[in-house]
Amino acid sequence: MNGRNNNDCNPEICFLCKYCLKEWVPSIEQFKTTVRLKKGGQLFKEGDAVNGIFFLKQGKLKVHKSWEEGRQMVIRFAKAGDVIGHRGLGSGTIYPVSATALENITACFIERSFFLRSIQVNPEFALQLMMFYSDELQDAEKRIRDLALMDVRGRIADTFLMLQKKFGTDEEGYIDVVLTRQDIASFAGTIYETFFRIANEFAKQKIIRYSGKRVKILKPSKLEVYSKI
After folding, report:
1. Is the pTM of this model over 0.85?
2. GO cellular component terms (predicted)?
């Protein structure tokens, strides 16, 4: 992990700079630290002490939690512009989850004390942060509902649709993120073997197309039918 202060923050991407007062930006530049990680590196891991919060500037990562027998449950995926590490800013002092880079990433790190001062000084930032937490809560409630009520085929279909909505598509129409089948299976709440079988069925039905680890949705309406509860 490399860290240094710099002045290349893009207010169109950085959540903090975007919603803070212009007069507060010089303070952000003074107190932030730029963190760069290569693919597979961990921004933080479950059990680490919480010292601050991260704002993802470039790249993509996954947030996950340890499970039984060394397995992991993928909780969410993140891209540039997202807030990372906020789950550790409650009353606890350690991170309850880990964050691992899916590709080379760049993030801004803000220490906890300065982050709290930023909330107090910047009402628009505080409002947008509250809305972010609200969206996170709604997403979490939806996942709990889906895991309880949706069959595995529906959860896998819904996961493909979510990934395309989250990351968009590249020039060839493939979802613009490269994920292992294990990570997709984990997020969908199933085992690799079940995901592999159902994804192959979708491919044979020409609903999706795989090219290596890349996936393209050919018939989103079919996936939407499967994902209806």
Report:
1. yes
2. cytosol
Buried b / exposed e along 122-138 (16+ C-beta atoms within 10 A): beebeebbeeeeeeeee
Judgement on whether residues 186 and 142 belong to the same structural domain of the protein? no
In a domain, 93, yes or no: yes
Does any domain span residue 120?
Answer: yes
Number of domains in the chain: 2
**pLDDT value for 144:** 87
pLDDT of residue 147: 84
d(CA 46, CA 44): 7
Listed residues 90, 125, 146: the one ending a domain: 146
Q: What is the pLDDT of residue 90?
A: 67
Q: How far apart are the first and last CA of the chain?
A: 43
Is there a domain that residue 70 lies in? yes
Range of the domain at 204: 150-227
| Cβ 74 vs Cβ 64: under 8 Å | yes
What are the phi and psi torsion angles at 40 (to 5°)? 95, -15
pLDDT by residue (tens digit) across 131-153? 998 998 898 898 888 888 899 99
- The residue whose two tokens read 């803070």 is 20
Q: Are residue 49 and residue 131 in the same domain, yes or no?
A: yes
Block means of pLDDT (10 residues each) for the chain, 229 residues, are: 53 84 91 95 92 93 85 92 82 86 95 92 94 89 88 96 96 96 95 96 97 96 90
**Same domain flag for 93 and 132:** yes
Phi/psi at 217 (5° precision): -90, 120
Q: Which of 117, 191, 106, 204 is nearest to 155 (CA)?
A: 191
